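Narrative summary of target 7.
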Amino acid sequence: MALGFGIVGTGMISRFHALALADTRGANLVGCTSRSADKSEAFAKEYGGTAYGTLKELLADPAVDAITVATPSGAHMEPAVAAAEAGKHVIVEKPLEVTLSRCDRIIDACARAGVQLATIFPSRFHAASQTLKKAVDAGRFGVLTMGDAYVKWYRTQQYYDSGAWRGTWKLDGGGALMNQAIHSV
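Modeled conformation, tokenized:
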């Protein structure tokens, strides 16, 4: 039996969620929703499923078992909490949210509803990350009390101009530290 997924948000990262669902046995893309009906329609046409006019409509569909939240970082809490309250499992694009209090609200809502919560961190599957994780688990470094990561990534102004939310405190948590360096955490 396949699990039905809904995608919230139809921006750049959403296509990776849709492709991952298409490649996952036992997963079925039921539909999507976003702030733009035109974008939702185009997304559904390209990746399948139904374009829902609102989040409420998506969550009301009994074929949806789980949602992936692929909105700007500071807009994760509302759909994640709504999904949990609707009894849907929740997968959230990294970071979970941009403030601790907003993260806590998502975690609490999922715990109260008894639904699963997961955050997308694709870097955890990179070879270097896997090697480091095995060494930590084997106790090769003793008891870890602090970590340090050097992230040498550069984002052009074009990157920040590609979305009005990028680099803002409200929706991006400030920019590179929250959005790129988080891969090293």
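The first strand starts at residue 3 and ends at 8.
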